[in-house]
Amino acid sequence: MVASAANLECGLKAANGGEFEIGVLDINLHGVQSYPITEVLEGRGIPFVFVSGYTGAGVDARFTNVPKLQKPFTAKALGEVPLRVPLSA
């Protein structure tokens, strides 16, 4: 399943009820950080990766161990991300 969510509310709904194997999360969803979605994914044991147009310096310190991709990225780069459930600190 592929789900796209343009805002936090839709992202939380997808994270809670979707059937997928990995989450690819933009850190910034129209000015709101997607961090609450990570809590749902962690609770469900679903690995995730952050994507962002920002540098790594803009990521909350709790998520230093979460894989990150800089936008734009390629399908190859996404496929090379280590898939594990990156529990936040």
How is the secondary structure organized here?
Layout: H1 8-17, E1 23-26, E2 28-29, E3 32-33, H2 35-44, E4 48-52, E5 68-70, H3 75-79
Parallel strand pairs: 1-4, 4-5
Antiparallel strand pairs: 2-3
Helix pairs in contact: 1-2
Q: What does this 3D model show about the protein?
A:
- The chain is an alpha/beta fold and 89 residues long.
- It has 3 helices and 5 strands.
- β2 (28-29) and β3 (32-33) form a beta hairpin.
- It starts with 7 loop residues before the first helix and ends in a 10-residue tail after the last helix.
- The mean pLDDT is 84.
Look at the structure and give the mean pLDDT. Answer: 84
Reading the helices and strands in chain order gives HEEEHEEH
Q: What is the β-strand count?
A: 5
Radius of gyration: 12 Å
Shape: globular
- Give the termini distance in whole angstroms: 29 Å
| Proportion of helical residues | 25-40%
User: In DSSP terms, counting alpha (H) and pi (I) runs of 4 or more, how many helices?
Assistant: 3
List keywords for this structure.
89 residues, alpha/beta, single chain, 5 strands, 3-stranded parallel beta sheet, two-stranded antiparallel ribbon, globular
Q: In brief, what are we looking at here?
A:
This protein has helices at residues 8-17, 35-44, 75-79, and strands at residues 23-26, 28-29, 32-33, 48-52, 68-70. By secondary structure, it is an alpha/beta fold.
